[in-house]
Every structure is written in structure tokens, then in C-alpha cells.
Amino acid sequence: MELTLEHIEQKVGAQTHLYPLDLTLVPRAVTVLLGATQAGKTTLMRVMAGLDVPSKGRVLADGVDVTGLPVRERNVAMVYQQFINYPSMTVANNIASPLKLRKETNIAARVNELAAKLHIEPFLQRLPAELSGGQQQRVALARALAKNAPLMLLDEPLVNLDYKLREELRDELSQLFAGGQSTVVYATTEPTEALLLGGYTAVLDGGELLQYGPTAEVFRRPRSLRVARAFSDPPMNLVNATAQPGGLLLQGGVSLQLTLPATPDATMTLGVRAGALRVHERPGDVALAGNVELAEIAGSDTFVHVHTAIGELVAQLTGVHVFTLGEPIALYLDPRQAYVFDAPGNLLMAPEVN
User: Fold this and answer.
1) Residue 207 exposed, middle or buried by CB count within 10 Å (0-12, 13-18, 19+)
2) Cα(304)–Cα(291) distance, rounded to whole angstroms?
3) pLDDT bucket at 281, cuts 50 / 70 / 90
4) Could you read off the pLDDT of 298-332 as tens digits, one per residue?
């Protein structure tokens, strides 16, 4: 399905939940709606599904205006944060329910196939209440996949699961969606999820659509500071900078050699992703001396917070590193890995892509 939103706006009373936006989803691909809580993701998804009618604008499905068409008359599959299953039905019957509605044949084989993909085969004869939260969400996902709808909407489906279950299901969802026939819309607050799912990403903030495009492109070239903040985990390091001949002057007298646009603003913002900072020097690096304020290990990475002359920086280091609080440290940055934003917050320069 090609879903197109034309001049969509959503108001509730005096409050604007969605500012005017235009968006055409890439058919049969995954689009991630990325943004913080109350960015407008759920509101936009409800308009897409037909649960809500927009205050202004049109929703087109394959060129047909479906703006006023209620959700029950649309072929849409939805998965929510909560584990919504039919409580009196077994897992097998939950998954089979959309297949039975379509009067399909070989229902048992299809149920077993989906259960195998989502690793819930041992629970087919149990009731949902007898399962863990992660298992219940797998049942809800299997039922949505069984519907084989041209539009599948997933509203933060993993948010209520623990870290390990989220990691497992993220990997599985990427494989389940690959090569499918559905146009998939997946809402999340987590940039990592967007990167893992790939496809396309629409960044929302405060009810505004800020950028839409291939996920890797949006991540590498966020068109504004607002997009960069939304699509960085940990947050992008942001430093005030002043233009000077040959580059930027930062706090503490630190210079960064860059080829800036011909007429840059006098004041700008330097952006550095945590993963671009290192503790080992390479040719051409700029050294940023400081002291360790905090070091924490998360998974296979170490996050070290450092007080430097240009401000507080966070570096994401691969592997386990041990630091003593207060110890001197030097972080190294290749200027080619820097982002530069102008005074209004628009992207001027992005890191080179090798």
C-alpha cells in the first residue's frame, strides 16, 4: 500500500497535536516514527489507521481518499504497547482469528509457521494470561502478521518489555518485516530501534514532521539540531563555536580546522556524536584534555563523561574500559567527523562518509 498524508493537521480543542504535514510512505517498506514522548507519533498513527479523523487534510490509500473511512472498514493491523489478545482464546486461536475471518484454508499450518517464527510454539494451547509479557506480545505480533494487512501499525510494541526481550524481538522483527508485502509503520522513542529496523525514518518533535528519508541518510545528515537531538543516543555533544579563518574556534582556545561554507554565521554549534570520540590518537586528530566525571558500562560499550575546556563531553567507547573518577584523560576527535549547525540550527556540514 502507498499511504499518503496531504496537509494533515490535528487539533484537540485549542491544542495542536499535529502541525500541517505532508508524508508519503514508501510502499512495502518499514517507516519508523521517531520522537520523544508527545512528539505526535501516536496521534499520527491513529490518523493513518482511521481511528481519528484529522482536523484538516486528507489520507489517501493507493490514491483513494479514505479520510472519513472508519478503521473497521480498512484492512489495517495494529499492535500496541499493551499486550492486547483475546483472553478467553488459546494462543493458537488468537493467531488463527484473522485467518478464520478470511475463511482461509490450511489455517493450522499457517498458525504453526507464525508461532515458529516468533518462538511461541510450546504455548499454542495456553491462554494469554498464562504467558509472560514478552510471550503475550509475541502472540499479538503473530496475530497482526496473520492478518496480512497492506498496512501494519506498531505503536511502541516493545516499550513494556525488559531489555533482553526487547533486544531479541528487535532482531526478529527486522527479519519478519524484510521482504514482506505490508507497509509497516513502527513508532519508537529509541534511535537505536530505528537504526536496527532500517528502512525509512520520519522524525517528529512537538507535533512537527522534521525530516523523512532512508534511515541511514537521516542519521548521517540530520537537517537540523532538532533532528540531531532526536536521532542520537546517547545525546549528541553540542558545543558553542565561533567562525574563524580556516574553521571554528571553541571554548578554551581550541581550534578545529574545517572548510566552512563561504559565508558562515559568526556563531554556530559544533555537534559530535559520542561514538566519534576516542581515547587513542590518530593522525589529524584534535586533542581535548579533561577529567573523568563518570564512567559506566552498558552492554559491550563504555560511556565516559569528561569535563573538558570546551564543555562536558560523553564518549562511547567500544569494549570495557576502566577509569578512575577525576583522572586526567584526553579525548580525540577527527574534525572530519564533526557536524556544524548555523545560528538558527540548520545543518551546514556533516561528517564525511567513507
Assistant:
1) buried
2) 10
3) very high
4) 888 999 999 999 999 999 999 999 999 999 999 99
The C-alpha atoms of residue 81 and residue 171 are separated, in whole angstroms, by 18
Q: Give pLDDT, residue 263.
A: 67
The CATH number of 3-230, from 3.40.50.300, 3.40.640.10, 3.40.50.12780, 3.30.1700.10, is 3.40.50.300
CA atoms within 13 A on the CB side of 34: 34
- The dihedral through the CA atoms of 191, 194, 196, 199 has a sign that is negative
Predicted confidence at residue 262, as pLDDT, reads 67
Phi, psi of 58 (to 5 degrees): -130, 150
Helix (H, G, I), strand (E, B) or coil at 106: coil
- Give the CATH class of 237-349: mainly beta
Tell me the backbone φ, ψ of residue 139, rounded to 5 degrees.
-65, -45
What is the domain partition of the chain in residue ranges?
3-230, 237-349
